[in-house]
Amino acid sequence: MTTAQVTVSGEGLTIDEVVRVARGREEVAITADTAVHERVRKSNAFIQEAVDNNKPIYGVTSGFGALAYKAISKEQAIELQNNIPWFHKVGTGNLLPQEDVRAAILVRMNSHLQGASGIRMSMIERMGTFLNKGATPQVREFASIGASGDLSPLSYITACLIGLDEGWLVDYQGEVLGAQTVLKKMGLEREELGPKEGLAMVNGTSVMTGIAANVMYDTRNLLAVAFGAHALLFQGLGATNQSFHPFIHARKPHPGQVDAAAVMLDLLTGSKLIADELQGQHEFRGGDEPIQDRYSLRCLPQYMGPIVDGLRMIASQVEFEINSATDNPLVDEASGNTYHGGNFLGQYIGVSMDQLRFHIGMLAKHLDVQIAMAVMPAFSNGLSAMLVGNTDRTINGGLQSLQLCGNCIMPQLQFYGNSLTTHYPTHAEGFNQNINSQGFGSANLARRSVEIFQQYIAVSLLFGMQAAELRTKIVCGHYDASQAMSKATLPLYTALYEVIGREFDETRTLVWNDYEQAMDGWIAAITADIRAGGKIVRAVSEVKHRLAGA
Q: Bridge-partner residues for 339, per DSSP?
């Protein structure tokens, strides 16, 4: 049986492949393409020759940052590189998740394989060994402003790779050990950084980009689940499918809007719980219900479209960054020149993670409006107040406290949607890094936003299930929504019941009497399943594929 692996070559690495290595622990291999190996060899040879001839190159024969005016002799060139992790050992805060550190190492490997960094192939191979043998350096969440890349976070990884000192710690197959001890366990010798190698390792956007890859993967999952939650709520509210008719969206053909409408139309097709008005007919619904759906229902494609388009753009930017050489200076081994530039600035990641958090906040807001409609008889088209199951029992609170839980979460997600990249300090590193991206911080905030949204989605799904079951009683005379909802929504509904450990019941709703269940346990189970990419995410895999634009 062939072991699955991801091959890196400096180009073409995808978000999904990063996640397979970072979380799935698939093995990584370096391409056998001789042209890639030759580029790496030549760029390293160029740096060695430049040092031997005392050529002026930033960070190789000069000091760093605000001290770049200092000349470094060839006798000091190696000491200069090996000193880098020492003065960048300033990280603080919580440890980054191992999956983010693993993603960062993979992205750094891929970046160096472009052959523009001057680093030895053996250093790139060592990164692969760390990944394949389950050695993950410990990195802290604070210290990078994303200007010269992730200097401090990458310096922790670098120090562990070479075994600089036992003070740098590594999680080795579940045991936390000093870096030198880990090298011995893996059969590796302690290494010394060569000219430019320290700078090449720390001067780049790989940590923020690794985090962003994991976060973007999760957000794609959450977007698909959010559409599933909308489909449940639409059916619970007895809404119409007419707002998704292709005729409407062909006349405002933003790609995201068109795809959002098509996905919703498919998710609702065949449901007994909605008003099927695709033929253009209209009916008065009785009571005070309007002839057309309220905006959060009728305008869903126009609202979700910018989110779909925005997340596609963010994914594209993250994958460009994954496949970029992001250190400085860059070596053009073909012409024999070096170029001083700023590919290390993490602005693309910073801005994209700001935007991702904004979109998550908007997703939560949209679901919150539909939940508010579902619990109020004045807006729910006949559902019980607070979606109470057993209305014959006077003492039943239904989902009113669950709504308060959602109301606690949703504003925080909108708060996380505020920009961080606009708040950079202009005086950083003695005014050398006087613009900076805050990309590392923005990516960390995005991870937290995703974690919170996973819990909010769990709350939303419970509302959707209860509402759909109450609507089933109105339409079919029983509570088993699996017999009435659309074929496309059924896998999600089934997965949710499996995850919380319940079975369909014609005689009662999911939440019937208050004392018969503990909803906090359900929220935790649904959240954990979504976080793991489990049954719930698999149930909406086709939606995810379509919304990703694949």
A: 330
Asked whether the predicted pLDDT for residue 2 surpasses 60, the reply is: no
The CATH number of the domain covering residues in 213-330+340-547: 1.20.200.10
CA distance 165 to 484: 64
How far is CA 74 from each of CA 48, 56, 117, 203, 503, rounded to the nearest angstrom?
10, 11, 19, 21, 73
Selected residue with higher pLDDT from 50 and 385: 385
Domain spans, the chain: 5-203, 213-330+340-547
Residues with catalytic roles: 58
Concatenate the DSSP letters of all residues of 488-506 into one string.
TTHHHHHHHHHHHT----T
Is the pLDDT at 29 greater than 50, yes or no?
yes
One-letter amino acid at 16 equals D
The residue type of 5 is Q
Distance CA 218, CA 97 (A): 14
> pLDDT per residue over 177-218, tens digit each?
999 999 999 999 999 999 999 999 999 999 999 999 999 999
Write down the pLDDT at residue 282.
Answer: 64
pLDDT in tens, 455-474: 999 999 999 999 999 999 99
Write phi, then psi, for 540 (nearest 5 degrees): -115, 25
Q: Which amino acid is at 172?
A: Y
Cβ-contact 467, 387 below 8 angstroms: yes
Q: Please write down the long-range contacts of 394-397, taking CB distance under 8 Å and 24 or more positions apart.
A: 395/514, 396/513, 396/514, 397/514
Q: Which of the following CATH numbers is that of domain 5-203: 1.10.275.10, 1.10.10.10, 1.20.1270.360, 3.40.50.300?
A: 1.10.275.10
Residues in the chain: 550
**8 Å CB contact between 242 and 277:** yes
pTM over 0.85: yes
